[in-house]
Amino acid sequence: MNRQWRVARLVEPGELLSPEHFAWHEAAMPEPADGEVLMRTLCLSTSPAQRGYISVNRSRQLLPDLAVGAVMRGRGIGMVVASHHADFQAGELYDASLGWQDYSIQRPRAPESIFSIRRVEDPVLPLTAELGVLGNSGMTAWFGLLEVGQLRAGESVLVSAAAGGVGSVTGQLARIRGASQVVGIAGTDEKCRWLVEELGFSAAVNYRTEDVAARLAQLNPRGFDVFFDNVGGRILDAGLANLAMHARVVVCGWISVDYSAQLTGGPANYRQLLYKRARIEGFVVFDYWKRYPQAQRVLKKWYRQGLLKNCDHVLEGLEQMPLALQGLFTGTNRGIMNCRVAPDPPAVGR
Question: Which helix (H) or strand (E) holds 51?
Fold first, then answer.
């Protein structure tokens, strides 16, 4: 049998995503046809964008809608079980759009498609790291910080949602690349301590208990050279109030306001972009899809050297996927929220 999570109903604006939006289903094992591959899911990743796939208001989404009754979309690491395609062999590992299910049929796509599948070269253990610090979270941090943010050694960096999946990698990359100061914004004292004591941030600000703008000004009176924003809203405003001259603001996401029932206004402190001759730019990580391998080679080197720490927050079992995704919106995750569906194969990776 093929266990699956399917879409039970769409999420209303302002509604908290929950397990009630999904339905557990058991289907027959799929059979690959000529040119197709049967893949077993080993682990799955989560992303705030997944809420958008099943939202009532989907006019702003980057990917096609999912209908009620469809298998929930999600990327993961899968192993080839059976292949009717000459380029794929049983036992090989791939990063692919597998869906929330045990088994999926894969039809190789063009390399530039985000639905294409990419072989996992020189895998590391645990394989969930291939979805996190070495997967989309790592790629988002890498290209957002270095390509869009154009970080240079000796500059200061501010990261919002720093204890989340992308933020926890971004701060580490800034430290490794020689930033003079890396400050993170998080939602609990425990997360703030984790950022400083475990991941090497210079300081962390608790947005629930501190005046963020005032605290940032105290930590860095000169202002920050790169602001990597994952949340939008009032945190974006606080960051804009603390920019250095010629700063770069990287817009990665706006989870704090994107799914509210009412449309929100723009940032109140946008005039700082003029005063500080700063630049603000958004990006979509899949635009860099073809360049993933070059970034992954460097990140794997740092990972094996111990410079880059694994930030996995792993839930066990396909049954946990709805809770794993919900955790991104309730703040229960610390680091990259992934779900292990099946054990890592023996004798794979280092």
Answer: helix 49-53
Q: Which two tokens stand for residue 347?
A: 């004798």
CB 98 within 8 A of CB 78: yes
Q: Which of 56, 72, 96, 58 is nearest to 23 (CA)?
A: 72
Cα–Cα nearest to 156, from 94, 77, 244 = 244
- How far apart, in whole angstroms, are the C-alpha atoms of residue 350 and residue 346? 11
Residue 303 and residue 308: Cα distance in Å, rounded? 5
Look at the pTM and tell me if it is higher than 0.85. yes
CA torsion angle 286 343 53 136 (round to 10): -20
- What are the DSSP E strand ranges found in the chain? 2-7, 22-27, 37-45, 75-83, 93-97, 103-106, 118-119, 156-159, 181-186, 203-206, 224-229, 243-251, 279-282, 312-316, 336-340
pLDDT tens-digit readout, 229-282: 999 999 999 999 999 999 999 999 877 666 655 656 678 899 999 999 999 999
Strands 103-106 vs 37-45: parallel, antiparallel or unpaired: antiparallel
Nearest 5°: the CA angle 274, 219, 217 is 40
What structural domains does the chain harbor?
A: 2-122+311-340 (3.90.180.10), 138-286 (3.40.50.720)
Burial 105-117 (b: 16+ CB within 10 A, else e): ebebeeeeeeebb
Residue-level length of the chain: 350
Residue 156 and residue 125: Cα distance in Å, rounded? 32
Q: Cα angle at 164 between 132 and 349, to 5 degrees?
A: 15
Phi and psi at 235, nearest 5°, equal -70, -40
